[in-house]
Amino acid sequence: MNMRGFIQILTRDLKVALRRWSELCNPLIFFLIVASLFPLAISPEASDLKEVGTGVLWISALLSSLLALDGLFRDDAEDGSMEQLALSPVPLTIVIAAKILAHWLITGLPLVVIAPVIALSYYMPVDALTTLILALTLATPTLSVLGAIGAALTVGLRRGGPIVGLLVLPLTGPVLIFGTLATDLAVQGESAAGPLYLLGALLALAIALGPLATSAAVRVSLE
Predict the structure, then answer these.
(1) Tens of pLDDT along 22-64?
(2) CB 73 within 8 A of CB 82
(3) Angle CA(155)–CA(15)–CA(200) in degrees, nearest 5?
(4) What is the full DSSP assignment across 62-119?
(5) Which of 22, 79, 121, 183 could serve as a FRET partner for 154 with CA atoms 20 to 30 Å apart?
């Protein structure tokens, strides 16, 4: 029953997102614009671009992942769907987990796919791209979980978008630090196993506790 409900919510959210393709493209377009403008603003020398490339990619990915957070629960809350989901036989934590996964598939997965292409414009070594992809694959779901908690806390506010960013950004520090460190180590030809293990631990913690915290925040906001 729970798995069936999970799949139904996931499918529903993906269908709704695909109908709003313009909103779907906003985070990806933002990432492409920000990451592409930096080479125009600094020296075109390969050494300079290689030095700042890792930080630019990770900060761009972080900021772009925050763009779609405001609508994660707001539309369902405004039309009454969230209250119905909270009263349904499917546990709210399962519903929240499905919505977080849908959010990651819509916003995080495209970043994982396009980031290596942008990284080549910063002269990142091809050998380091695998580490970049793996680090983003571990980091972006964690960002989605953290963003879901912030979105749930502000779902009752009329304009909660800026507040979501203020709530979530301080929590993303470890993800940004470990992701950047792993990529830098790979660029330098060193082992990035340590930061990747830490990103994996953060992801496991987010998966275990994130839906519980988010569902509690949603219930508070609906009261």
Answers:
(1) 666 778 888 888 888 887 777 777 777 788 888 888 988 888 8
(2) yes
(3) 65
(4) HHHHTTTSTHHHHHHHHTTHHHHHHHSSS-HHHHHHHHHHHHIIIIIHHHHHHHHHHH
(5) 22
